[in-house]
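cache lookup: miss for this entity combination. No prior model stored, computing from scratch. Input as submitted by user K.M.:
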Amino acid sequence: MKKLIIAVLFAISGILDAKGQDAKPINKPGNLMIGITGGLSSPSGNFIKTDYADNTSGFAGSGSNIGVTATWFIKKNFGISALVSYQQYSFKGIQNMADGFHESFDVDSASATVKGNNHTINILVGPYYSLPIGNKFSIDFRGLVGLANSSLAGWDVVLTDAGITHPPLTQNVSSAATFGMQFGVGFRYKVTDRWAVLLNGDYFYSKPDFTIVNVDRNANAGREIYSYNQPIAGINANLTLAYILKHK
Amino acid sequence: MKKRNIIILTSVFTLLICWSACNKKEQAVAPPLPGNEPLTTLVLKATNANDATDTPSASWIQLDPTGTNPPDTSHATLHLKSGASYNVVVQLLDSLNDITPEIKERENYHLFCFDVAPGLNLTCKQTDLDTNPKPLPIGLTDLFTTGAVSSGSLEVTLHHQPNVKDGTCPPGSIDIDATYTVKIQ
């Protein structure tokens, strides 16, 4: 079975190689490809848990990302790529938060409001490899590492009991910078000699260590965390519009 | 040329749609839940610190949750000896259960207060502490110290102080308000 799989892989790579040689080069050394990219971000793991009683819960939902990318082709199919992007995730489970405080303080009602949002600003660089298929398409691979500066949303909870509305309990918005990485594959279609579109799928990962400030927490009751150190990881599904600056 | 423009415009439009889709304010409210059993009974169980056989107790009972009918105070008189100290345990019940353990679980935002009528020679002090960052009294266990022979009323209130407990009685609301007669002999 292993031999069969290896044989098939060799056959596919041979076909791709042959097609690549037949096609007009989609890439050229010295070309610079600049793109605007954006799409959906789908985080996973503890970051998307919404369990009020679990301190690893990040209450993040799916979101979106937008960025600017540039790739300089050093060789025909190999280049260096950079990406500056902004990823934002929705806050999921705010009702759980309200219900949790309602129960924790045994009050008539609890109202929870999100402060800020969950987001990450990435500045990443790394290698880029493009595998041409015909003269219009290529499969592009990239692996990027760099800085990820993340922000964790906060919230206000207002407790009301026996007609008395108490001052809000607050978890402040917090931020932390750390190492980040992103790697994935893109399918590039050359619209003209200058313009191209790409469909990208990328895995992203960072693990920021947030220090959390709580305000007006007089009682030792209800969800109260002082730090959050869970991976922010998941998949980006993007569309990129790229412009190629040709090297003369 | 036309095809190129369509692709480019579609790409930009798609990017904008994706981006704008996720920006909205999040808020939720947990509304009141019906059907919490009202507190009906507050029991004071005292034990003389120097005489274990001296164990007076008193019960205040209000079975009408609306408070329209007066409470049953037929067992709400506490007989104490003068010049003595009593360790007091407070017990709370609803119509079905002893809910004292629940109050203990929620000690960080509950406080029993004792209001002694003028002329009654009694001092009351909570002896238990909660687990707040700065521990504060609860009042499920107390020390009653009596003086000279006297009698009068003792009002016991359970204060519900969600995130506003500061060791004093005023913040929050009152879960139960019971008045006893205390006779020091």
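stored under new cache key. The interface with chain A takes residues 3-4, 7-8, 11-12, 14-16, 18-19, 21-33, 106, 108-109, 130-133, 160-166, 172-174 of chain B (CB under 8 Å).
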